[in-house]
Amino acid sequence: MNNLCNKATLEAIPSLSNKESDLIQKVAQTYPMKVTEYYLGLIREPGDPIYKQCIPSEEELSDPTGQSDPLQEDQHSPVPRLHHRYPDRVLLVVTNNCAIYCRFCTRKRNISDKTTAITDTELARVVEYLNDHQEVHDVLISGGDPFSLPLNRLEKIISAIRALPHIDFIRIGTRIPCVDPEQVTKEFCAMLKKYHPLYINVQFNSPEEITPRSQQACAMLADAGIQLGNQSVLLRGVNDTPEVIKKLVRKLLGMRVKPYYLFIADMVKGTGHFRTTVETGLGIIRSIQGWMSGMATPQLVIDLENGGGKVPLSPCNVIEKQDGKYTFRNFENKLYEYIEHQPSQTRS
Ligand SMILES: *Cc1c(COP(=O)(O)O)cnc(C)c1O
């Protein structure tokens, strides 16, 4: 189950050459491949946006850039599975298993290990740590994919955290609605509904991923009262143009998912061929802001190498500032002046 890369899987891909198939199997020995039947079925031809996200590429083995743990998550882990990098929130990695292994994964270092899920002892230590850290108000449950855990395991984790009064809300990060939507069942939603306030961040990277089935999965979660956000990764050859991202965010809003973050791909070893420039990201944001509903703009973010953390990036619209006089640029690239009045101060 763990490594679904075999000949039968690859035969399901339309017009894949034998040579390509051999290469894929070679890369998968270093960086495992796993993909659901549903997601594989979305591939139309080798090299399309779905294919690129889930099928190993030779370039993974020849990446001269990157580190295995660029965010230095392993160094900000006070107890196993918990990452406390920011003042008021923590990241809890509950499993290293996923429904598919995205080729650009930030935690590529973890997926080749044997599948492990958080144990009761580990959960108890996490709860103890949170009890001692009353400044934490937001627990982000991630992985791996938390939704790949059995329902009762996931409920045990969520309920243990929910029992802590200083935790204001819980967040879950998952790709299941996108890559294995059938897993979002009524039972699943009924369980989650008991633990509000609950936010879920899904991950759709390309408009081709939005299908009647993934729409249905998001609708069920939204009907359970869960606020849905989307975290996309900017990926070369997949979604690195304004046209694609604009189409994506429109489709997301149409299924009650608010675009939350758009990430510059992390400096992870083996993913260099996906990385875009910062300017590409800023250009995409410029093409959305003002041109589309304010609801449509995700925050562009870069998660810095060497553990610098997330830095939000925005196109610079302050052109000049002098003696309380600003020059701003609007979405049409026209300049406007703004004079700031400071009522309590008199100037000479
Ligand atoms: C991304 C991340 C969070 C959550 O960040 P937000 O900006 O609040 O979405 C929390 N902890 C860690 C370690 C993270 O990497």
Instruction: Look up the CATH topology.
Output: TIM Barrel
**Mind telling me the C-alpha Rg?**
22 Å
Q: Which bin fits the share of residues in helices? A: 25-40%
CATH arch. level architecture: Alpha-Beta Barrel
Structure annotation, total helices = 12
Structural class of the secondary structure composition? alpha/beta
CATH superfamily: Aldolase class I
Shape annotation: globular
The major β-sheet equals: 9 strands, mixed
| Terminal CA distance | 76 Å
User: What small ligands are held by the chains?
Assistant: pyridoxal-5'-phosphate
Our count of domains comes out at: 1
Report a brief summary of the structure.
The protein is of the alpha/beta class and 348 residues long.
Descriptive tags:
348 residues, alpha/beta, TIM Barrel, three-stranded antiparallel sheet, 12 helices, 19% strand, binds pyridoxal-5'-phosphate, metal ion binding, isomerase, 4 iron, 4 sulfur cluster binding
Structural notes for this entry:
The chain has 348 residues and is of the alpha/beta class. The chain has one domain (58-313): Aldolase class I (TIM Barrel). The chain is built from 12 helices and 12 strands. It has helices at residues 7-11, 18-30, 37-40, 49-54, 108-111, 120-132, 151-162, 176-179, 186-193, 212-223, 242-254, 278-288; strands at residues 82-86, 89-93, 138-142, 169-173, 198-202, 227-234, 257-264, 299-304, 309-313, 318-322, 325-329, 335-339. The strands form 2 sheets. A 9-stranded mixed beta sheet has the order 1-2-3-4-5-6-7-8-9. Strand 3 (138-142), helix 7 (151-162) and strand 4 (169-173) form a beta-alpha-beta unit. The chain is globular, with a radius of gyration of 22 Å. Bound molecules: pyridoxal-5'-phosphate (PLP). Residues 83, 85-86, 89, 91, 140, 310 line the site of pyridoxal-5'-phosphate. The site of pyridoxal-5'-phosphate has 7 residues, from strand 1 and strand 2. InterPro entries: Aldolase_TIM, LAM_C_dom, Lys_aminomutase/Glu_NH3_mut, rSAM, rSAM_sf. Residues 59-81 are annotated as: Disordered. This is KamA family radical SAM protein. Keywords: 4Fe-4S, Iron, Iron-sulfur, Isomerase, Metal-binding, Pyridoxal phosphate, S-adenosyl-L-methionine. The modification N6-(pyridoxal phosphate)lysine is found at residue 310.
